[in-house]
Write a structure and sequence with these properties.
The chain is of the alpha+beta class and 200 residues long. The protein has 5 helices and 6 strands.
Length: 200
C-alpha cells in the first residue's frame, strides 16, 4: 500500500469518526439513548479519554494524558511512514498502523478541541462553536455512543467473584475511533505472521 492510500484511509476514518461525534453532540443530551435493536443502542456518554472511563487524578491529569497521546500519535505516524518506505512491509501491517493512528488521532481531536468548541451537554443539546464552551484547550471529553448490551442478567451463584451479580455482556460504550484502534490491534495479533513476515 502506498503512503498516499494509507493517509487516505486515516482521513476517511477521521471524517466518519468526527461526523458521528458531532452529530451525537448536537442531537443528544448526555445520557440519552435510542434503541436500534434490543442488543444495540445509541447511548451518548462522555469520558476523560482513557479506556472504561478511567482518568488520571489531579489538576493536570487530563493535560498529561492529552500531551502523551500527541507524542504517541507522532510516533505512530513515523511508524507508518517508515513501514511504507520499507518496501518489504506487508499491507496487513500498513493497514493496521493506519487504523491505530486514525483512531488515536480521532480521540485526540475530542480531547484537544471539544472543550472549547461545544457547550455543556448535561441539560441541553450541545451547540457547535458555542460562546460558552464547557472546558478549555486540551481538556475536552471524548464522545462515545455505540452500546451493545447483547446479554443482561444475573450470573449463577456458583461462579467465583461475579456469581449472583447482575452482568451485562457487552457493557463497553465506544466510538468509531475505538473501533479503528481495536481493529488495527486485532490485525497485528491475529495476522501477526502476515503483518511481520520473515524475509530470507
Amino acid at each position: 500500500m502506498s503512503l498516499r492510500n494509507a493517509y487516505l484511509l486515516v482521513v476517511l476514518i477521521l471524517v466518519v469518526d468526527q461526523v458521528s461525534k458531532i452529530y451525537i453532540k448536537t442531537n443528544f443530551i448526555l445520557g440519552e439513548e435510542v434503541e436500534v435493536f434490543s442488543w444495540f443502542k445509541i447511548y451518548f456518554i462522555e469520558n476523560e479519554g482513557m479506556a472504561w472511563g478511567t482518568r488520571i487524578p489531579g489538576e493536570y491529569g487530563k493535560l498529561i494524558l492529552t500531551v502523551f497521546r500527541l507524542f504517541a500519535v507522532a510516533g505512530i505516524g513515523y511508524w507508518l511512514w517508515d513501514s511504507v518506505k520499507k518496501r518489504h512491509s506487508s499491507n496487513y501491517l500498513i493497514v493496521a498502523i493506519a487504523l491505530i493512528m486514525a483512531g488515536a488521532f480521532g480521540n485526540i481531536l475530542d480531547s484537544v478541541f471539544y472543550g472549547v468548541t461545544f457547550d455543556d451537554s448535561q441539560q441541553n443539546v450541545a451547540t457547535l462553536f458555542s460562546n460558552q464552551p464547557y472546558g478549555t484547550w486540551f481538556h475536552g471529553k471524548v464522545v462515545d455512543m455505540f452500546y451493545f448490551p447483547i446479554w443482561q442478567g444475573n450470573l449463577p451463584g456458583w461462579l467465583p467473584i461475579w456469581g449472583g451479580k447482575e452482568f451485562t455482556f457487552f457493557n463497553a460504550i465506544f466510538n468509531i475511533a475505538d473501533v479503528a484502534i481495536s481493529t488495527g490491534v486485532g490485525i497485528l495479533l491475529f495476522f501477526n505472521k502476515k503483518a511481520f513476515p520473515k524475509h530470507e
